[in-house]
Amino acid sequence: TTALAFSSLVTKASSFAADESDSPRPLLRPVHEDIVCRWTAAHPRHDHQLIFPLDTERLLLVWCEYYANRPSLLVRQPTSKANQASDEMPCRISAKVSTDRGRTWSDSMTLQENHWKHNVKHPNLVRLSNSEILFSYVGWDSNSQRNVFLKRSTDNGETWSEQVQISEPGWYCNNADRALRLSTGRVLIPAHGPFAEKYVGGTPYRGGGLHSFVFYSDDGFQTWKRSSDSMTAPGRGCHEPSIVELNDGRLMCFLRNTNECLYRSYSEDGGDHWSTPQPTELPSPESPSCVKRIPSTGNLLLVWNHVASKSNWPRTPLTAAISSDEGQTWTDFQDIDNRPDFDAAYPSVTFLGDEVLIACYTRPTSWARDSEVTLKVFPIAALDPS
Known about the structure:
Layout: H1 18-22, E1 32-37, E2 46-53, E3 59-66, E4 91-98, E5 109-112, E6 119-127, E7 133-140, E8 146-153, E9 164-165, E10 180-181, E11 187-193, E12 211-217, E13 225-226, E14 239-245, E15 251-256, E16 261-267, E17 278-283, E18 290-293, E19 300-305, E20 318-323, E21 331-337, E22 342-352, E23 355-364, E24 372-379, H2 380-383
Antiparallel strand pairs: 1-24, 2-3, 3-4, 4-5, 6-7, 7-8, 8-9, 10-11, 11-12, 12-13, 14-15, 15-16, 16-17, 18-19, 19-20, 20-21, 22-23, 23-24
C-alpha cells in the first residue's frame, strides 16, 4: 500500500539550519554520567532502555537484559565474533529504581520474563492516571512471528494484569520509549514491519521495504486499531518511528531509513493516516531518532546519530538539536557523545524538572554486538538556552 499523501503537507524539506548542522558542534558536558547497565559475560548486551517517573521521588529504569544460556558464553569476550550477542539472543525486560534523580540505582528485578523462543524486548510505558500505567513489549518467537503484547497496572507498577496480544499474528517491531498519549487521550504505540500492506505475515523477513505505522487506542486498554496506511521509502523502507504531537494537533514522525538522512511524515487525524515520508536535511545513518517536547520551554528536542550513511554505521556522534517552530527549523546543535571509537545510539529521553536524562546503548566499535546502557544528565538550559 502506498502511503497516503496530503497535498497540504508534502512540501520541499524544511530548512534545518544546515550551515549550523554541518559546522563543528560543541560536546555537551553532563552534570552526571554513569554506565547504568554494565557488560558481564553472563549479561553481555543491554539496550532498548527507558526511564519512567513513578512519582515525585522514584524513577524506573527499564531495559532489555540479554543473558547467557550455555556455558561457552560465560567465558567469551565482548570482542568475540563467535557466539556474539545477536538480536535473537535470549533476553528479558529488567528494571531498577532511583530515588535521587538518576544518580544511583537499586539492584535489578525482572519486569517481564522471557516466555518466547527467542526473547522479549522493546518496552514502552504510558501513564494513564496517577495509578494506571500501560506496559507494551514485543515477544520474539521466530523470524516470522514477533508480536506486540500489553499489560496494565492499576497500582502504579506494583502489579500487572495478564498480557493481551494487540497485534494480529505476524512480524512486528518497535522501539523503547516511543509510545505516547495524545492530548485527546489516544494512546499510540509506533511500530514497523515488512508486511504492513496487510499488517500480518507468516513468512520470515528477508529484507526489502519496511513499513511504519501505529497501533492506537481511544479507551486506554480495551480495544486497539492499526493505522489505515503506512509509511515507507526507497531502499529498506521506513522503520523505528518516533512521533511527537504538534501544537496544531498534527503528529510529526521521524523515520529510520537507508537514504543518508532522517525521513519525516505527518498525520492530521491522530495517526490513522500518514503523509508520504519526505527526506529532511538532517543527516543520519540507518539508526533511529527520538523526538520529544520539552515541558518547561515548549520547544522540541531531537536526539539522533548526526552522520550521513546508507548503512547502520557509524553510530556516532549522538547529537541533540532544538526546534522552536514545531520542527520546521533546528538550531543549537550539540553532541551528546562524539567518541569516534564508540557507538552511542537508540536514545531515550526523560524530562525531570530542570534536567533531562538521556540514555543510550554504548559500546566500543571493537565489540561485536555486546553493549551497555549509559545515562547522561543535563540541565535543560544547556540544551535549550531559550
